[in-house]
Write a structure and sequence with these properties.
Blueprint: H1 17-20, E1 24-29, H2 35-49, E2 59-63, H3 66-84, H4 90-103, H5 107-123, E3 130-132, H6 133-143, E4 155-157, H7 160-173, H8 179-194, H9 202-213, H10 218-221, H11 229-263, H12 275-284, H13 310-347, H14 350-364, E5 366-368, H15 372-380, H16 392-395, E6 398-401, H17 409-424, E7 434-439, H18 453-460, E8 471-476, H19 484-497, H20 504-512, E9 525-530, H21 546-563, E10 571-575, H22 578-590, E11 595-596, H23 607-620, H24 625-638, H25 645-654, H26 658-666, H27 674-678, H28 682-693, E12 732-733, H29 741-749, H30 753-762, E13 772-778, E14 780-786, E15 791-796, H31 803-818, E16 822-827, H32 828-833, H33 835-855, H34 887-903, H35 907-917, E17 932-936, H36 937-940, E18 945-950, E19 964-968, E20 978-982, H37 992-1017, E21 1020-1028, H38 1043-1053, E22 1063-1067, H39 1098-1106, H40 1110-1125, H41 1134-1143, H42 1152-1163, E23 1177-1180, E24 1184-1185, E25 1191-1192, E26 1196-1199, E27 1204-1211, H43 1217-1232, E28 1236-1245, E29 1249-1253
Parallel strand pairs: 1-7, 1-8, 2-3, 2-6, 4-5, 6-7, 9-21, 10-17, 10-18, 11-17, 12-13, 15-16, 18-21, 27-28
Antiparallel strand pairs: 9-22, 13-14, 14-15, 19-20, 23-26, 24-25, 26-27, 28-29
């Protein structure tokens, strides 16, 4: 959307932009105020009035994301192109009028100049310099690599985390070789063990390593560069000794105070409740508790009213207070030392980690992107004319910095010399250099990577780092994005929040600089709602937990918005944490809501990519049964059709020897040599797998020309509202779970003895996690499951030792593992005789699962396999079969090729790499699709959406990651100017200066959290929905340090809050915007194969057989009709089913009439009327999992409302008694589920139709 803003400067009399513009212009641009319009306009002014057509060569525009770069380039080039047209667009005409007014150029001059400039840019596009700041820094470093003593061929890596992990692993590997390091690591391990923490020290060392690469800590870390491990060991000894001395001194001081009281003949009972002397005694005995009352003033020491020695006490109180003052100072110092001691061991490894990092980067010829700014910063320090910018400084005369609040301090300091050089002089035409920075400190949300709001705030005041004093500040305070109701809500809300701040600048920021003027879009809607209170319910019931309530409220909001006339693509759901987005995506996917998010398009979730990984694992180790089972599962579902999935996997697992396995696969037309694949390079090996299993499209899928899939399907359902019982949150089921729900309920009521014993323990949540009993996961009933930790607990009887059951259990476990669940099993006897041991095992596995989930939340997502509205990028198909142009596979092949070429990686190396990095890769999110978007608030920055929904608006902003504080260490006399301590409330007790640092940190954290909230609430154009949780105390008190408090306080300020009311509306929910209905214009691009794969000819071969000999003709014809009937539910479906079979190549157009007549004869057969009635529910080829784990798949079941079933099966060839037996087995299984089979029949399909009623 184009926005108009007032120009910073008046038109230049000479027509030159530089004359009228200030040298240093700062645009304070609140959300939606048209900052991009302002940037583009100022950029165009410079190039349009310049004497030459290549003035863009002298302009450097910097922003922070590739998307922002693309937008700015597109806006500039697009504007010039429109100006050059005979009939520009209305927006372009308005912009031309503004430019004409500011530059004194005529419309004809602007049009002519634009034609010349656009032609020049096209021929010199590389000089059109708009880039990210990282790309610019990289270009500088690359140009001066030799001067900076860097290898000329270095590669940039974004993967700093893995570099750190390698460095930490290398350090720990040195244990046993370096004596000093070994002792340090052992001591650290013992300290952690003594504190009842995990002995694994790698996490703490890794956290320390992150300090090395974090710009926020670089200035403090420089103080430790000359310190060795031995130096730190010595400091540690001194600290321990100092703590002992301070405690000893305090005991003596306390005794001296007690002696003073005694020598004055004062009765200890004269002190009120004996509080004061008891305080001294606790200090003397080493039992001092800092949380107890302390004594600093005369009146703090309470004396009994009846005390006869009051005068004596009052006489010595000043001396007692003085003694206690010394004691408290000593305790402050001791606590300070102890806090430092907790961090000194990992801190002592700073240089070791730093050196190891440098060594690894040198060996791998890579440079971490986090090093860029530090390298330049080191070179430009104390150099008035730094050589690193000597060429660039002459080229660039004008600078634009977008999103300045995200510029780190070091990045800004590095740019100052370059910009100062340009601002200080003039070019050959007498034009001075200029700088325009645009930003909004209220949208500063990247403090963790160096972006600080304070930097922009200081520049907005009196700070000017340049010699040129010509500086001007402009506030863009009109919102062009949102409707008036949204703007007015944010104005009131954030002004109210300003009272939360104590820091003057932060308070001023929201009190005086958050108000925005409205535009001509009147109306809009804001809704603040709260989820119902989570009630404790009876043990047999399963209510909704808090997360489930949030996702349910989100779904209800989407449905409400759709009813108002909005489309899916108009809606965005913003969350603070990725895990919250995952929870919502899981549920909405199950509810068939089309979704788009980067997480749903992750490469590792594609069925085909998982196949490749599992096969690579098998190639690495053919004893990996799990990998083999997954490989077989893929083939069973997507390639072979002779056996059921279960039977195919079971038979494949029986092939123990690799040669036997290959021979067995040959019987299914799968020809490959595992050993030959192992001999190939990594990329060649993957290419073979792709060619063998992925490239050939399944005939029934029409050759895989185009598969339109929505990313984000998951096999787990957070809440299912369609259970037979109608109870929300009852199960986590798959496609056929509705057939098993009654069975699960029955199992709950009739547990075995062992199950009852274990459930009695688990339901009390004694292990700290909620378990569910006899729960449906996909199409299995599991004994117990903890959904939050993805852990399944099975209790088995003796029959599980049978050979057949072992195979079934293995298949069941494989499927559950593929859904992300860990399965552990116990025997009945174990549970009955050793319940404590069983609970300990479960507790340990729960802890392991928690760590796994924290490391990789993304694994909750599975491949996109259901919806078909989105992503014309050959996503995984519903069957798991890839189309010819599967985007996931193409991206995966690119990754494999890069690893193969760059690292000469083998299969084992690549699998190790993939385990660590799989979650980082996703295909680009397609634009313009009609789907709800889910993204984190950070990713939404700079974007706008018609409707914004923000669930989980109840974050406790006082809870933060484990960060650290640097405190002044000069007074310690240990040679360390700075010391590192944990950021906790204990810091307040370390003295006045430490408390000031702690308080400032708390204010910074509050600002960062309010800024995140500001970004979220200002994304909405027309409607804004906030879903929070009151979380009131039993006394009705508002929670402290919680985001929900902000909304409750706002509602109170409006006088509308009622703790019994959950929904609050501002404005009208009626849709006001009139945007065009969504039209999907995306097109699938077919991949042209270089060779003809023989497997593609199979359809023609099948047709030839079908119409060959009489016997074969009858069987094949029956099979074809059978397959078409699977798509027929009622008589009305026949025409469409036959048409689809022609399109898919199953039959030809010439065969249509015969096939159509046969199917019509079946559906209209006099004896089969009840089987094709439109009154009942029809289930075609639905899998049923039996109690013992076996699966059956009747061809057709017709289910009445009275739970009566008509059972039908299609057969070909001669009549056989085994078919009757099979149908009777189906009947038994169905009736065990609580249904009644009232009629069953076999239909033999050949040249004639033969119905056999049983």
């Amino acid at each position: 959307m184009e926005h108009k803003v007032d120009p910073v400067s008046t038109p230049s009399p000479s027509g030159r932009a530089g004359v009228g513009r200030p040298s240093f212009a700062i645009y304070d641009a609140s959300a939606g105020s048209g900052k991009t319009y302002a940037l583009v306009k100022e950029y165009l002014k410079i190039i349009l009035v310049a004497p030459k057509n290549d003035a863009y060569r002298n302009i450097l525009a910097i922003t922070f994301t590739n998307k922002a770069v693309h937008e700015m380039k597109s806006r500039i080039v697009g504007s010039l192109s429109e100006f050059a047209k005979d009939e520009p667009s209305k927006k372009a005409e308005d912009l031309m009028q503004d430019l004409a007014k500011d530059t004194a150029l005529s419309i004809i001059q602007i049009k002519t100049k634009s034609q010349q400039i656009i032609k020049h840019i096209i021929h010199n596009y590389a000089a059109f310099d708009i880039s990210t700041i990282d790309k610019f820094t990289h270009k500088v470093i690359r140009a001066f690599a030799h001067d900076l003593k860097l290898p000329m061929t270095f590669e940039v890596t974004l993967d700093t985390e893995n570099l750190l992990i390698e460095a930490v692993d290398a350090i720990i590997a040195q244990a046993g070789e370096d004596e000093t390091l070994t002792k340090l690591l052992i001591d650290f391990t013992m300290e952690k063990t003594d504190d009842d923490k995990s002995w694994d020290i790698s996490r703490e060392i890794l956290d320390t390593g992150r300090l090395v690469l974090n710009e926020n800590h670089r200035s403090e870390i420089t103080h430790f560069q000359d310190k060795s491990i031995a130096d730190f060991v010595e400091i540690k000894k001194k600290l321990i000794e100092s703590c002992k001395v301070l405690e000893k001194d305090n005991a003596e001081f306390a005794q001296a105070a007690l002696t003073l009281i005694e020598n004055n003949g004062i009765d200890l009972k004269s002190f009120s409740r004996g509080t004061f002397p008891n305080h001294l005694i606790s200090i003397r005995d080493g039992k001092y508790n800092p949380k107890n009352k302390t004594f600093h003033e005369f009146d703090d020491i309470a004396i009994n009213k009846t005390a006869k020695d009051r005068a004596l006490i009052e006489n010595i109180i000043p001396e007692l207070i003085q003694i206690l003052g010394t004691i408290y100072k000593n305790f402050e110092k001791r606590d300070f030392y102890k806090a430092f001691l907790r961090n000194i061991t990992p801190l002592s490894l700073l240089n070791t980690v730093s050196n190891e990092l440098a060594k690894i980067q040198e060996e791998q010829n890579v440079l971490s992107i986090s090093e860029f700014n530090a390298i330049i910063h080191r070179e430009i320090q104390n150099q008035p004319a730094p050589f690193i910018y000597e060429r660039l400084g002459e080229r660039y005369r004008h600078f634009f910095i977008d999103e300045f609040q995200d510029t780190s301090e070091m990045q800004w300091q590095n740019l100052i010399p370059l910009i100062d050089n340009a601002l200080a002089g003039q070019d050959d035409y007498g034009e001075k250099g200029t700088l325009m920075i645009v930003g909004d400190p209220k949208q500063s949300i990247y403090r963790w990577r160096g972006g600080k709001a304070e930097q922009f705030i200081e520049l907005s005041k009196d700070n000017n780092p340049f010699a040129n004093p010509d500086k001007k500040l402009e506030h863009l305070d009109k919102n062009y994005r949102s409707y008036s109701q949204v703007i007015e809500f944010n104005n009131e809300f954030f002004k109210l929040l300003s009272s939360e701040f104590e820091q003057p600048d932060y308070k001023d920021l929201y009190e005086n600089h958050s108000h925005q003027k409205t535009n001509d879009k009147s109306g809009g809607y804001v809704n603040i709602s709260f989820i119902p209170k989570v009630e404790t319910i009876e043990e047999d019931e399963e209510g909704l937990d808090k997360t489930e309530l949030f996702v349910l409220a989100t779904l209800n909001t989407i449905q409400k918005v759709l009813q108002e006339g909005f489309e899916y693509k108009d809606i965005v759901i913003l969350t603070r944490k990725r895990s919250q987005g995952i929870a919502i995506a899981n549920y909405l996917t199950e509810q068939n809501i089309p979704l788009l998010s980067s997480e749903t398009l992750m490469i590792q979730n594609a069925t085909e990519v998982r196949l490749i990984i599992h096969l690579l694992k098998y190639l690495k180790n053919n004893a990996d049964l799990e990998a083999k089972a997954h490989f077989l599962h893929y083939i069973a579902k997507n390639i072979q059709d002779q056996l059921s999935v279960h039977d195919f996997i079971a038979k494949g697992m029986e092939q123990k020897l690799e040669a036997d396995f290959e021979k067995w696969l040959m019987s299914y037309d799968i020809s490959l040599s595992f050993q030959n694949i192992r001999k190939k390079s990594l990329y060649e090996a993957v290419e073979v797998i792709v060619a063998k299993f992925i490239l050939p499209p399944a005939p029934s899928e029409g050759g895989g020309d185009s598969v339109e899939i929505l990313g984000g399907n998951t096999n787990e359902v957070v809440i299912n509202h369609n259970t037979i019982s109608g109870k929300k949150g009852f199960m986590t089921g798959g496609n056929y779970s509705h057939l098993l729900i009654e069975k699960a309920i029955a199992h709950r009521k009739e547990p075995t003895v062992a199950e009852k014993i274990l459930w009695d323990e688990l339901k009390e949540q004694s292990l700290g996690s909620k378990f569910r009993q006899q729960h449906l996961i996909d199409n299995y009933i599991v004994d117990f499951v903890c959904l939050s930790k993805k852990l399944i607990v099975e209790v088995d009887g003796e029959y599980h030792f049978t050979e057949e059951q072992i195979v079934l259990d293995q298949e069941r476990t494989t499927v559950l593992n593929s859904l992300g669940y860990k399965v552990i099993r116990f025997l009945n006897e174990e549970v009955v005789s050793s319940i404590s041991k069983v609970l300990d095992t479960i507790r340990n596995v729960l802890e392991e699962q928690q760590q796994t989930l924290e490391l990789n939340n993304d694994k909750l997502f599975n491949s996109a396999n259901k919806s078909k509205d989105l992503v014309n990028t050959q996503s995984p198909s519903p069957s798991g079969r890839a189309g010819v142009g599967n985007a996931y596979v193409q991206y995966f092949l690119d990754i494999v090729l890069e690893r193969d070429v760059r690292n000469q990686a083998g299969i084992a190396d690549f699998l190790n790499f993939w385990d660590k990095n799989a979650e980082k890769f996703s295909i680009p999110s397609p634009e313009g699709n009609n789907a709800v978007r889910i993204m984190t608030i950070h990713k939404s920055k700079g974007l706008e959406f018609p409707v914004v929904i923000m669930p989980f608006a109840e974050e406790d902003y006082s809870r933060k990651p484990k960060d650290k504080l640097w405190l002044d260490g000069e007074e310690m006399d240990f040679g360390l100017p700075k010391v590192l301590v944990d950021n906790s409330s204990a810091v307040e007790g370390f003295g006045v200066e430490a408390k000031a640092i702690y308080d400032q940190k708390k204010q910074e954290e509050l600002l960062d959290n309010v800024n995140v909230l500001y970004v979220a609430l200002t994304r909405a154009e027309e409607q804004l929905y906030v879903i929070s949780n009151m979380n009131l105390s039993s006394k009705g008190e508002v929670p402290k340090n919680n985001m929900a408090t902000f909304f409750i306080n706002y509602l109170m300020s409006k006088g509308v809050f009622d703790e019994n009311k959950l929904d609050y509306e501002f404005g009208s929910a009626t849709k006001l915007s009139n945007k065009a209905k969504h039209i999907d214009t995306s097109k699938a691009i077919r991949v042209v194969a270089e060779i003809l794969n023989p497997k593609n000819i199979k359809i023609a071969q099948r047709e030839a057989l079908m119409w060959g000999t009489y016997q074969q003709e009858s069987i094949e014809y029956g099979n074809v009709v059978h397959e078409i009937l699977s798509f027929v539910k009622t008589k009305k479906d026949v025409e469409l089913a036959v048409t689809k079979s022609i399109e898919s190549g199953l039959i030809t157009l010439n065969q249509k009439e015969l096939v159509h007549k046969t199917i019509q004869d079946i559906v209209n057969h006099q004896e089969l009327q009840s089987f094709f009635s439109e009154e009942h529910e029809v289930l075609n080829e639905q899998t049923i999992i039996q109690k013992e784990g076996k699966t059956i798949k009747p061809d057709r079941m017709v289910v009445t409302k009275g739970k009566e079933v008509f059972l039908l099966d299609y057969k070909t060839g001669a009549h056989d008694a085994k078919y009757q037996k099979q149908l009777e087995n189906y009947q038994s299984a169905i009736e065990l589920m609580g249904y009644k089979v009232v009629k069953k029949a076999l239909i033999y399909i050949g040249k004639e139709i033969d119905v056999v009623n049983l």
